[in-house]
Amino acid sequence: MFRQLARDSLIGMNGIERRQRLMNMDLADIVSIGDAGSKIAGAVIGTHGFVWAPGKTHTGHPGNAARGAFVKGDRQLELGFSTDSVDAFRHLARDLQRFGGDFMFGDGATIIAASKAKAAIS
């Protein structure tokens, strides 16, 4: 069952209080956020054959974290998440709809060209 963050309790907190509360989340909560978020972003990217693959988890300093990736063939969109809420996945879904066509169902030419250009600058 999805463990839901008590968002109401975060409203009204200053940034430091909110960050401390989120940093104290247990790993099960973080994994649940990833699972719930993967369903949101998966509604966009999954229609193009990508599947969610939960990844490694981490406990300890600087906080608990989890990883996962949307995978299709040789393409992989790897995500790491920790103290962010499911809202991050909503933003990802919107960005995928607006800018992710080449990655999700195109030939990848734009991404490959950008990667080569970045490598040439570095």
Which blocks of ≥5 consecutive residues have pLDDT under 50?
1-11
The global form is: globular
Main β sheet profile: 3 strands, antiparallel
Assembly annotation: single chain
Strand neighbour order, sheet with most strands? 1-2-3
Let me know the number of strands: 3
Number of separate structural domains: 1
Describe it for me?
- This protein has one domain.
- The chain is built from 6 helices and 3 strands, in the order αααβββααα.
- The protein has helices at residues 7-10, 15-23, 27-45, 87-99, 101-104, 109-121, and strands at residues 51-58, 65-72, 75-81.
- A 3-stranded antiparallel beta sheet has the order 1-2-3, covered by helices on one side.
- Strand 1 and strand 2 form a beta hairpin.
Supply the key terms.
single chain, 122 residues, alpha+beta, 6 helices, globular
In short:
The protein has 122 residues and is of the alpha+beta class. The chain has one domain. It is built from six helices and three strands; from the N terminus they run H-H-H-E-E-E-H-H-H.
Layout of helices and strands:
Elements: H1 7-10, H2 15-23, H3 27-45, E1 51-58, E2 65-72, E3 75-81, H4 87-99, H5 101-104, H6 109-121
Antiparallel strand pairs: 1-2, 2-3
